Amino acid sequence: SKTVEPLVNFVNDENQNILWLGLSSKNLGELKQSQSIEVQMNLYPVKVGLFSIPVIKITDLITQKFTEFKDLASVDIIAE
Questions:
Q1: Which of 4, 30, 47, 61 has the highest local Cβ count within 10 Å?
Q2: Which domain holds residue 39?
Q3: Is residue 30 one of the residues assigned to a domain?
């Protein structure tokens, strides 16, 4: 079975309306095919409106191949 060692990077950009909080990257350790792991993600809204979740980049440390995930979901930020 295939094994990967994913490194998750939470990418912040000065033009984003939602920012990642906390660690900017996390090594998930070795995972076997079909294995999963839960990762907590914390976001901070800069202003109100409907915005996409910022970019997540996952690099396999074994093969050095990476994938970027953009516009995974939208979040509606409202004022209280």
A1: 4
A2: 3-75
A3: yes
The answer to the question of residue 63 being in a domain is yes
For the entire predicted model, the pTM comes to 0.82
Other C-beta atoms closer than 10 Å to the C-beta of 40 total 7
Paired sense of beta strands 18-21 and 42-45, if any: antiparallel
Instruction: Please check whether residue 80 lies inside any domain of the structure.
Output: no
| Structural domains in the chain (count) | 1
